[in-house]
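Hey, can you fold this one?
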Amino acid sequence: MFYEPKNGHGMNHDPFNALVTPRPIGWISTRGTDGSENLAPYSFFNAVAYTPPQVMFSSVGAKPDQIGTKDSVANIRETGVFCANVVESEARDTMNITSGPWPKTQDEFELAQLERAECQTIPCSRVANAPANLECQVTQIVPLKGNNNFLIIGEVTGIHMRDDCIKDGQFDVLSFKPLARLGYRDYAIVDNVFSLKRPNE
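Sure. Predicted structure:
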C-alpha cells in the first residue's frame, strides 16, 4: 500500500502515528505566571542532543479556552521553562487522567492526586515520585506547518533520578519499566532490553 497524506489513506484510522513507534512520553509540567499548574502527557517527545543536554516535545491542536494552543505552550510562553517527567508503567492510569481536555484552571496534579515537588533550577513543579525529571529552560519555540502545531526545545538544566532506579552506577529502565506510546489508543511497556556493540568497538 502507498498513499500520499494530502490525499488521505482510506483506512478506518490514520496510521501515521502507528508507524513511528514506540515513542517515549514526555509528561510535561508547567506553571503560569499566575501560579497555576499544568501537567499533560505528550507523545511527540524525545532527547535531541548531549552537550548541552536538550529535549523537545511538540504540541498539536488548541483548546477553546486558550488562544491557538494548549495550556503547556501558553505557560511556557509566559515563563520560558518546563519539566519533562518520565512515565513508568505503574503510572499509566494516572498519566491518562492528566491527558483530558481539562479547563486551564484545572490543576492536574490535584485532579490525579499526584504528589508534586519543586524543581531546583527553574520555577516549576515536578512529579515527585517519577523515575526521573528533566528541568528545562526553553531555547526555541518553533511554529510548525499546519494549524496550532509547535515544537518546543529545552536545555536540560537539572536532572532528578529516583534512587531505586540507579543500579550498578547506571539508570536502570527495567527497575520501573517505561511506558511508551504506540498508535491509536495503544501503549507498550519496556520490560526487556538487550545490548549491541557497534562495529568499531
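The two ends are 39 Å apart (CA to CA). Let me know if you want another pass with a different chain boundary.
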